[in-house]
UniProtKB/TrEMBL annotation:
Cofactor: record remark: Binds 1 FAD per subunit.
Organism: Microscilla marina ATCC 23134
Official protein name in the record: Deoxyribodipyrimidine photo-lyase
Domain of life of the organism encoding this protein: Bacteria
Domain Photolyase/cryptochrome alpha/beta, first and last residues per copy: 3-142
Length: 447
C-alpha cells in the first residue's frame, strides 16, 4: 500500500504562507490537504444557515480551485467528528481515484482554544496508537503560548509590558514568508473533488464580495490612529474575519503594521495577548479572571436583555451597534465597547450573556478576543477598565458620532416619537452599577 501524508486545514484557510502546509510539502511526498467540518461544533449551531459556515465553504472553494487549476491536486473535505475521521484514516487508509493509501503522518497548525486542545489530544492519541506521526506548527500568531513571559518566567497579565516585550523579541525571521509554492510538486496528484457543503446553503457566497476585502489598504493603515474610533468612517481594516479563519497570513499583516502604523500593530498584539491569556488561564472561558468579580449580583433581567439584543434600548448609539451586528455580523470595535459597557454596567447583566450573544452573531468571532473584550468592559478581566469606569453613551456619541451618521444609518427613527424612551436613566444606572460592584467586591473581600 502506498503511503500518504495528510495536511489538516483548520484556522489557516489559505495555500500561501502557511507554515504547516509548507513543512509538510518540504519534508514529505504525496501530501493530501483535508478539511473537516467538525460535527461537535456544527451540530450545535442554532442557525443552520450560519454565514460563518458559508465563509469557510467559500474559502475552501478558492483553495480547491487553486489546487486543481495550478497544482493538479485536490482537497478532501469531511463532515464528521475529527476523531472518527482519523480512526478511519489510520485503520482503513484512504482510497482516492481507485487507489488505497496508508497514512504515515499528519501535519497541521496549532490551535489554542480549550476545545481545540482537547480535540487535538484525542487525535494525537489515535494517531500514536497506529504509529502515525503528528506534526503541528505555530502559524496564526507571531508569538504563542508562553513565548513572551515576564522576567520571572510567568505569563503577563497586563498588556503594556507584554507589548513592549513582544516588540523587543520580534525579528525579521518571525515574519519570513513560508514559500509553499516552492515545494508544491509534493502534493498528491488527484482529480478535483467538489468540497462538501455540510449544512443548508445560504445562497451563493462570493468570498470577495460578501465579506470585507483581504487587501491591506496602505492609506487606511496610515490613517488608522486618527480614524479608528469613528464608526461612520471606513477607518478600520475589517481584516478580523480573515484573521479568524486564516485566509490571510498574520506575518503579512504585521509587516504592513510595522511599516505604516504602530497603533494598528498594538491592536494585533492585543489579539495575541488575549490568546496567551486564554491559553495560560483557561478558567476565563466561564469565570472572571479576577475571582472577586464573580460575586457581583447581576440583575439579569431577560426583558431588558432582549431589548439590548434587538437594539431597542432607547440609547441610539447602543441600538445602532446591535442592529449593525444583527444585520451584518460585524460591529465596529468602539461600539463593541459601548454596547458591552451598557449591558454590564447600565443593565447589570452578566457579561457572559453578552459574550454568548456576540459569539452567535459575530462573523469574526474568536473566543479569546471576545472573552477578553467582554471581561475588559465588565472590569473582571486581567487588564480591564476599572469597575467605576462606566461609558456614558451620550458622551461617546458626541465624541465619536457627533453628526449622528452612524446612528442615522442603523436607527433612522431615533428622532421620531415612536423611538422608545431610554430603558434606564444614565445617571441612575451609573450609580446603581457603582453601588452593586462595590458591594460585590466587598462581599468577596470578607469571605
Amino acid at each position: 500500500m502506498n503511503s500518504i501524508t495528510v495536511f489538516w486545514f483548520r484556522r489557516d484557510l489559505r495555500l500561501h504562507d502557511n507554515t504547516g502546509l509548507y513543512e509538510a510539502l518540504k519534508n514529505e511526498q504525496n501530501v493530501l490537504p483535508i478539511f473537516i467540518f467538525d460535527r461537535h461544533i456544527l451540530d450545535d449551531l442554532e442557525d443552520k444557515k450560519d454565514l460563518r459556515v458559508a465563509y469557510i465553504y467559500a474559502a475552501l472553494q478558492q483553495i480547491q480551485q487553486s489546487l486543481a487549476d495550478d497544482l493538479q491536486s485536490s482537497l478532501k473535505v469531511y463532515y464528521d467528528y475529527p476523531e472518527q475521521v482519523f480512526e478511519q484514516l489510520t485503520q482503513a487508509g484512504i482510497t482516492l481515484n481507485g487507489e488505497t493509501y496508508q497514512v504515515k503522518s499528519v501535519y497541521t497548525n496549532h490551535d489554542y482554544e480549550p476545545y481545540a486542545r482537547q480535540r487535538d489530544e484525542k487525535v494525537q492519541q489515535i494517531l500514536s496508537n497506529s504509529g502515525v506521526a503528528w506534526h503541528s506548527f505555530k502559524d496564526q500568531v507571531i508569538f504563542e503560548k508562553q513565548e513572551v513571559l515576564t522576567n520571572a518566567d510567568k505569563p503577563y497579565t497586563v498588556f503594556t509590558p507584554y507589548s513592549k516585550k513582544w516588540k523587543h523579541h520580534l525579528t525579521d525571521a518571525h515574519l519570513q514568508e513560508r514559500l509553499v509554492a516552492s515545494h508544491a510538486q509534493n502534493l498528491l496528484k488527484l482529480s478535483p473533488q467538489l468540497p462538501l457543503m455540510p449544512l443548508e446553503k445560504t445562497g451563493f457566497v462570493d468570498i470577495n464580495k460578501s465579506f470585507s476585502s483581504k487587501t491591506i489598504k496602505k492609506q487606511l493603515v496610515i490613517d488608522y490612529q486618527q480614524n479608528r474610533d469613528f464608526p461612520a468612517v471606513q477607518g478600520t481594516s475589517r481584516l478580523s474575519v480573515h484573521l479568524r479563519f486564516g485566509t490571510v497570513s498574520i506575518r503579512k499583516i504585521v509587516k504592513a503594521a510595522q511599516k505604516y502604523s504602530d497603533t494598528w500593530l498594538n491592536e494585533l498584539i492585543w489579539r495575541e495577548f488575549y490568546m496567551m491569556i486564554l491559553y495560560s488561564f483557561p478558567h476565563v472561558v466561564d469565570k472572571s479572571f479576577k475571582p472577586a468579580y464573580d460575586c457581583i449580583q447581576w440583575r439579569n433581567n431577560p426583558d431588558e436583555f432582549k431589548r439590548w439584543c434587538e437594539g431597542t434600548t432607547g440609547y441610539p448609539i447602543v441600538d445602532a451597534g446591535m442592529r449593525e451586528l444583527n444585520t451584518t455580523g460585524f460591529m465596529h470595535n468602539r461600539v463593541r465597547m459601548i454596547t458591552a459597557s451598557f449591558l454590564t454596567k447600565h443593565l447589570l447583566i452578566d457579561w457572559r450573556w453578552g459574550e454568548a450573544y456576540f459569539a452567535k452573531k459575530l462573523l469574526d468571532y474568536d473566543l479569546s478576543a471576545n472573552n477578553g473584550g467582554w471581561q475588559w468592559a465588565a472590569g473582571s478581566g486581567c487588564d480591564a477598565a476599572p469597575y467605576f469606569r462606566v461609558f456614558n453613551p451620550y458622551a461617546q456619541t458626541e465624541k465619536f458620532d457627533k453628526q449622528r451618521q452612524y446612528i442615522r444609518q442603523w436607527v433612522p427613527e431615533f428622532e421620531l416619537s415612536r423611538y422608545p424612551a431610554p430603558i434606564v436613566e444614565h445617571k441612575f444606572a451609573r450609580q446603581r452599577a457603582l453601588d452593586t460592584y462595590k458591594a460585590g467586591l466587598s462581599k468577596e473581600a470578607t469571605v
